[in-house]
Structures are given as structure tokens and as C-alpha cells.
Amino acid sequence: MVNPVQRCQVTFIPSNKQVMVPRGTVLLKAANLIDEHINASCGGKGTCGKCRVIIEEGSFNTSETPFLSKKERAEGYVLACLTLIESDLKVRIPAESMMGKGQMLETKNVWRPQIEVGHWELKPRTCKQVIKLPPPSLSDNRSDFDRLVTSLKQAGIETCNLCTNAYILRKLGRIVREKDWEVTVTLMDIFGRQEIIDISAGKETGRHYGLAIDIGTTTIAVYLIDLIEGEIVTVASDYNAQMSCGEDIISRIVFQLRATAWKS
Ligand code: FES
Questions:
Q1: Identical fold at 7-98 and 126-201?
Q2: Measured from the CB, is residue 32 less than 6 Å from ligand 1?
Q3: What per-residue confidence (pLDDT) applies to 106?
Q4: Where in the chain are the domains?
Q5: Does the domain spanning 126-201 belong to CATH 1.10.10.10?
Q6: Cβ neighbours, 10 Å, residue 174
Q7: Which of 29, 37, 50 to mutate to test the pocket of ligand 1 (most atoms within 8 A of CB)?
Q8: 16 CA to centre of ligand 1 in angstroms
Q9: What are the Cα distances from residue 217, in Å, to 71, 246, 253?
Q10: What integer best gives the mean pLDDT of the chain?
């Protein structure tokens, strides 16, 4: 009879997150399974020494490493990528090994990007158009969408390949009737083709915002941009969660290869 694989519960402190994994699982992999981010600049090769954790309870099997002193080893320090889980464990992640999540790395009040990139023309791919639709009557029984398209065309919008989505069509009937057939249509230019991406009742042109998302290897930044004034209103950023798989792309590829090896 085949023995069932023994499963172990790993509890990470201070988050108190828990995960059940088969005995023999690499500790770094267990942490990644539940998005417990531990610094792992080398992608789990054991060459950066950054994935230091302290095992407070339980048994484990770890490899020798020059990154930990005798004293640290006696205190329970191990490298998560070189440690195999042998029983239920309680693992403390020290501050230096933690990758903060949800951390605002930078905030600025409104500023103009000209300061940083020189002169540039404000030409957003989206625009808002206020139009007044003719209400339906016995002699004009077109659908609301046909009525909208005709009015956009009369306002000078290219409607040849105009398209929209089910979300807009579902709310169209209600929105056009809310403010006496006056609506604000938000259009997006997608390589020369106009798409209706939103519609709201009445005149709603006072605010028009867009997001610019910068996905970097280390951080991800999201900029809220006022598309009327051309100003960046604020920016929020956080570490790229892939950091726990290595600091650079090559380390992350290596990490993935090792993760596949850990699975088999
Ligand atoms: S030494 Fe463990 S991830 Fe680098």
C-alpha cells in the first residue's frame, strides 16, 4: 500500500498566513503559494542570501550557506530557498526579508510633466462629447443606439466603424431619458476607429481622467492624469510582486525553472 504524502502546515509570522504543503516542499515555494512575499533576488538559487527567515517551531532540512553565521543558525535563521519542510512549521519573516505590499512608494501633488519631459502636446485618445438626442416619436421610431450614432455624426464624429459594448447598450435606454435626452458620450480612438466607452446623463465634461500604468521590473506605478489640464494628479506605486521570484528577468526565469523542478 502506498503511503499518502504527509502534509505539513506552515504558518508565517507576523502575517499569520497559513498554507498546507506536502512534506519536503521548499519553504520559499510554500511562501509563494500564498503570496507571502520574501526577498529572493537570485530567484531561489541560494546565491543572494536575502531570503532569510527564522524557524520558530518545527523540523526542517536545510543546506549549508555562507550567508548565515554560526550564531544566526543557532538562532533559527535559514535561507527559505534552501530549506525543505519536514513537519508543521512556524516561520518568522524578519523585516529585512519582507517585501512590503500595498506600500505607497511615492506620492506627489498635482504637477505638470513638462518639468520632467519638456514640451509636449496634450492629445488624449479619449474625448467627451455632449449631444442632445431627438426624442422618439410616431414618425421617428429608430432605436436609441441609431439615434445616438446619427447625433454623433451630426456633431462631427467619424461614425463609420463606430462600436461599443454590451455594458453601454444595457444602460443606454435609461441614461438617454434621465436628463431630457442630453448625454455625454466618452469616445476612444482605437487606431482610427471610434469606440463608445462610456455614456452619462447630462453634461459631464468638467472632469476627464486617464490612468498611465508603468509596469517595471521592480515597481509598478499608476499615474492619475487630468486629461483636460494635462496634469498628473497623483501617483501610487508598489513593489512588483514578481520581486519575490528574483530581482531581474533572468533570475525570474531561473526561478520558474526551479519551481517546475520543485513540482516534479
Ligand atoms: S538566497 Fe534564497 S533567494 Fe537568493
A1: yes
A2: no
A3: 52
A4: 7-98, 126-201
A5: no
A6: 10
A7: 50
A8: 22
A9: 35, 10, 13
A10: 87
Residue 146 has φ and ψ, to the nearest 5°, of -60, -40
Give the three-class secondary structure for 235.
strand
Looking at per-residue confidence, does 5 or 209 come out higher? 209
Query: In a mutational test of the pocket of ligand 1, which residue from 79, 250, 254, 257 has the highest number of ligand atoms less than 8 Å from its CB?
Result: 79
pTM: 0.61
Q: Cα angle vertex 37, ends 100, 29, to 5°? A: 175
49 lines ligand 1 (CB under 6 A): yes
- Are 136 and 253 in contact by the 8 Å Cβ rule? The answer is no
Q: Residues near 40 by Cβ (< 8 Å), separated by ≥ 6?
A: 28, 48, 50, 51, 80, 81, 243, 244, 245, 246, 255
- Ligand 1: which of 26, 32, 48, 242 to mutate, judged by most atoms within 8 Å of the beta carbon? 48
CA–centroid distance, residue 5 to ligand 1 (Å)? 27
Query: Is 7-98 in CATH node 3.40.50.1860?
Result: no
Amino acid letter, residue 3: N
pLDDT, tens only, 37-83: 888 888 888 888 889 999 999 999 999 888 998 899 999 999 999 99
